[in-house]
Structure formats: structure tokens, C-alpha cells
């Protein structure tokens, strides 16, 4: 099970880096739970369509948006923890590089929870 979950997460990052938001969103359950500073405090439920739209909008701001996986940590039967660096360039030439950690919960071959942690401090 852990290897299948790791394969699913690797596919997720492949699709992310191809900017195939609809296919990436298909890896989630119809409605998944998210913890993400960009969505506000607490847990937010989002549909696949909302997830694809969120990343489509982010990709408009950062056309070269890329996630570079640093390490994948399978954890038990339902979880995969991923350490990665997200980077991109805005139209004005401003670049960002953001270390992120996500805990994916995978049930029945789909991501049901995506708990993402990063420094959301804006200087």
C-alpha cells in the first residue's frame, strides 16, 4: 500500500509540474479536506473543480510554477509526507522559492486530505 501511495504522490508532482491541473485534481476524492495558509485558518473542503481552479489561478501569476521534491516519506498505510520547494517567476520578474511540507492522506487510491505547511509570513 505504501508503494502505491508513493506512486500516486509522485504522479501528483509530475502533473503539477506539467501544469495539468484537471488531471492533478482527479487524484483527489470528489471533495477533499485542505489545510493551507492560502485558504485561511482551519480545514477547508474543496471539490476537484475548486482545486483545479486554485492552481490555474496560481499558474496565471507564476507561469513557470514548479515543485521540486526534496524527500518523500511514506508513513503507515494512509499517509505520505512530502518535503518540497515551490518556485516561480511573476510577470514583473519577481521570483520566489518556498520550502513546503505536505501530509497527504490517501484512501481508496485517492487523496482525501492535503495538509500543507509553509511560512506564510509576508515581509
From TrEMBL:
Pfam families: SnoaL_2. Residues 9-112 form the SnoaL-like domain. Signal peptide: none annotated. Transmembrane segments: none annotated. This is SnoaL-like domain-containing protein. It comes from Pontibacter akesuensis.
Amino acid at each position: 500500500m505504501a508503494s502505491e501511495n508513493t506512486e500516486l504522490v509522485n504522479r501528483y508532482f509530475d502533473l503539477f509540474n506539467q501544469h495539468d491541473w484537471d488531471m492533478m485534481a482527479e487524484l483527489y476524492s470528489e471533495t477533499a479536506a485542505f489545510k493551507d495558509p492560502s485558504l485561511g485558518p482551519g480545514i477547508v473542503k474543496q471539490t476537484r473543480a475548486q482545486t483545479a481552479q486554485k492552481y490555474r489561478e496560481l499558474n496565471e501569476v507564476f507561469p513557470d510554477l514548479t515543485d521540486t521534491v526534496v524527500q518523500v516519506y511514506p508513513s503507515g498505510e494512509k499517509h505520505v509526507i512530502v518535503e518540497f520547494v515551490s518556485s516561480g517567476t511573476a510577470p514583473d520578474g519577481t521570483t520566489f522559492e518556498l520550502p513546503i511540507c505536505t501530509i497527504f492522506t490517501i484512501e481508496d487510491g485517492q487523496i482525501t486530505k492535503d495538509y500543507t505547511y509553509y511560512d506564510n509570513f509576508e515581509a
